[in-house]
């Protein structure tokens, strides 16, 4: 469907699992040249499986280990993509981390870890990509995986909500700086989506029922539904979309507590 993605070079951070894995496979099926970033060795079998799937679909892919919270790693990741495939067209800052801890018990190290991965990691990825786009005079694309919690507060996840809230204004500010060069920077904000990270909690009947209460569409989302939006935002079909967040959340951000018509 998105023919212009054919041959485009895309870097996807956090491609070893969850949404990132699905993004990688969908871009590969669209015949993009995919650089799958992963963090630890235990991701390698999954990353290799995605690479095989992409190659079977006629695409090209490589894997690069890097920790997105370390600047040298991020620069090495982007440089490897450029050296291997000759350029970079699309940067997907997707890697993220979440773990519930009540705020009064959260150490500064626990706070910092999430900010470093989710926010500073995306900043460093976006910065490296913009530098390349400016040098090459290229109308590149940056897509950050954010969350409905860039706008909905999330008790016990103060570091996560702060990182995603920051990611929203980071994206909007960067877009304002670079839209004039044709560089498009946008966020995707998923709600409750089934991935290997959330499968367990959503298969608990009580948590599932509580979550469905928060979703006007009354269904938990699928990774494919988020990947569709990633392809759209990366392609020329969205070439007038700058500095926007697309919520893929079944209406979660639309005040579902008001569904009963009271208030
Ligand atoms: C989190 C999920 C959560 C969803 C809705 C996402 O950002 O990664 O764990 O279910 O927000 O609360």
UniProtKB/TrEMBL annotation:
Give the similarity note. Answer: Belongs to the short-chain dehydrogenases/reductases (SDR) family.
Gene Ontology MF terms = diacetyl reductase ((S)-acetoin forming) (NAD+) activity
User: What residue intervals traverse the membrane?
Assistant: none
According to UniProt, the name of this protein is 3-oxoacyl-[acyl-carrier-protein] reductase FabG
Q: What is its EC number?
A: 1.1.1.304
Q: EC class of this enzyme? A: oxidoreductase
Q: What does this protein do?
A: Catalyzes the irreversible reduction of 2,3-butanediol to (S)-acetoin in the presence of NADH. Catalyzes the NADPH-dependent reduction of beta-ketoacyl-ACP substrates to beta-hydroxyacyl-ACP products, the first reductive step in the elongation cycle of fatty acid biosynthesis.
Which domain of life does the UniProt lineage start with? Bacteria
Give UniProt keywords alphabetically.
Oxidoreductase
The family database entries (InterPro entries) matched by this protein are listed as:
NAD(P)-bd_dom_sf, Sc_DH/Rdtase_CS, SDR, SDR_fam
Q: Name one Pfam family in it.
A: adh_short_C2
Catalysed reactions listed for this entry: (S)-acetoin + NAD(+) = diacetyl + NADH + H(+)
Q: Name one GO biological process term.
A: bile acid metabolic process
